[in-house]
Amino acid sequence: MSQDKINVTLPDGTVLDLPSGSTAGDVAAAIGPGLAKAALGAEIDGELVGTAMGGWDGHRGWVYSVVVSPEHRREGVGTALMKRVERDLAFMGCHKLNLQVRGSNREAVEFYKSLGYSTEDRVSMGKRLEEDLG
């Protein structure tokens, strides 16, 4: 990899070459223009310590991911990222935000509860697509 490039490999194997110094927003914009509106990064002293990604399809808003490095948890980074995602999606017109957490991830469940989220009576379903591609 060249010193002046960042290579991002997407799940389909596509490699994006971005200039060094690209932000999380730059990477998101290169992947898809809608993604850039909902991708956030948090830095402390120039170090990326957290990211969040959310979106709104015009009907429901979703938080897809919130990640904070273990050494910076319980410092308000996750809360700040969530508040920003909420604000940005509300500004777009989103009235309700959803998220999914594994039931075994009690720390995450308690984190989201502390922000006002509650458990709803829903069935979460998924399907692995590679099973149908063979």
Question: Could you give a short account of the major beta sheet?
Answer: 4 strands, mixed
The ordered string of helix (H) and strand (E) elements is EEHEEEHEHH
Question: What's the helical proportion of residues?
Answer: 25-40%
The chain-level structural class is alpha+beta
Low-confidence parts, pLDDT < 50 over ≥5 residues? none
Task: Walk me through the structure.
By secondary structure, the protein is an alpha+beta fold. It folds into two domains: 1-33, no CATH class; 38-120, Gcn5-related N-acetyltransferase (GNAT) (Aminopeptidase), CATH 3.40.630.30. The chain has helices at 24-31, 77-92, 106-114, 130-133; strands spanning 5-9, 15-19, 39-44, 47-56, 61-68, 97-99. The chain has a four-stranded mixed beta sheet. It has a two-stranded antiparallel ribbon with strand order 1-2. The radius of gyration is 17 Å and the shape is globular. The chain starts with a strand and ends with a helix. The relative contact order is 0.10.
